[in-house]
Amino acid sequence: MKRLLPALTLTSLLLCGVSCSKEKRYFELTGYAQGGTYSVKFATDDKSIKPGTVQEAVDSILTLIDTTLSGYNKGSQLSRYNAGAEVTPNSMFKEIYTISRKLFQETEGALDVAAGPLFDAWGFGFTTDSLPSGALVDSLLASCGMDCLDKDMKPVREGIIPKLNFNAIAQGYSSDKIAEYLHSLGVTDMLVDIGEIYCEGLSPKGRPWRIGIDRPFDGNNTPGADLDGIWQGDGTGCGVVTSGNYRRYYEKDGQKYSHTIDPRTGYPVRHSLLSATIVAPDATLADAYATYCMVIGLDEAKAFITARSDLEGYLIYDEGGEMKEWASSGFNLAVE
């Protein structure tokens, strides 16, 4: 996930072609958010909806997310909570914590937002440390974990208050909050991309949205530059998220360290899975489950996706130095 930063307007709007309905107009709003740029495409036939007003609302939502959940914004509720300050969580903080707690329980600790110090120690959290000693990892494991907190974020073990890091779901959650706002306006054709994607309805070409899946090789740092395949929706609202270790990693003494940390062991994962693309009912869950697949590895990820009627997945993995793919039965690869 990219860093959470305040949203700033880059361009106001772009009329985006002809929609499936002659009365609908497509717009694209873009700006800065979460360490990169965002894009919100939507169609409406309601002339009372002004793109400039929508832009202001989108930026306001993203600013609220930043001041609530960003670990890089030292004044955010999350940063102040992690620093030990007395914080009264707002509804957004409570909501994402509740979601995270359910995911922790469901995955038996493989998704753990209360493992922030472990991510920091390996240089993939809110600090730039790296290569912690085994003794440090062990000590951090003893002081991490959502089982150290109750449902109201209160510590249940004396002297242990874990630091939180919502990076595994914050971008997907952000896309869902924007989609929620667009739904309140009656919008049903949209693609919200804030690092992770929520899409619904039809694109300006009059067909369901298509989303490229990047080939997960080291050095492929430009989204869309080299695709492995293209997923096509059916118009149903859903989140589409890819997680991988080919863009965030570092090498020391000939060893590659990926940004996916298994919070159960305290160490970066080492397996053949290169990237996981998940289609879920919303972007928050797609974000979480894509990360989960990268934690558990190829075989367990296949079993997990296959067992879930609400998920589809596309896994790219290494087999003897060759890149291979596995797709669930309902994962729709577009044919050009």
Question: Mean of residue pLDDT?
Answer: 86
Ends distance: 30 Å
* Large-scale geometry: globular
Number of helix segments?
Answer: 8
Q: What value does the Rg take, in angstroms?
A: 20 Å
String of helices and strands = EEEHHHHHHEEEEEEEEEEHHEE
Q: SS-based structural class?
A: alpha+beta
Strand order within the widest beta sheet: 1-2-3-4-5-8-13-14-15
Outline the biggest β-sheet.
9 strands, antiparallel
- Amount of beta strand: 25-35%
Uncertain residue segments = 1-21
**Helix content estimate:** 25-40%
Using DSSP, what is the number of strands?
Answer: 15
Would you spell out the secondary-structure blueprint of this structure?
Layout: E1 8-18, E2 25-33, E3 36-44, H1 51-69, H2 77-82, H3 91-106, H4 116-121, H5 134-142, H6 170-184, E4 189-193, E5 197-200, E6 210-214, E7 227-232, E8 238-244, E9 249-252, E10 255-258, E11 261-262, E12 267-268, E13 273-280, H7 283-296, H8 298-307, E14 312-319, E15 322-327
Antiparallel strand pairs: 1-2, 2-3, 3-4, 4-5, 5-8, 6-7, 8-13, 9-10, 11-12, 13-14, 14-15
Written account of the structure:
The chain is α+β, with helices and mostly antiparallel strands and 336 residues long. Helices cover 28% and strands 27% of the residues. It has 8 helices and 15 strands. Helix 1 packs antiparallel against helix 6, helix 6 (170-184) packs antiparallel against helix 7 (283-296) and helix 7 runs antiparallel to helix 8 (298-307). The longest helix is centred in the N-terminal third of the chain and has 19 residues, at 51-69. It is globular. It starts with 7 loop residues before the first strand and ends in a 9-residue tail after the last strand.
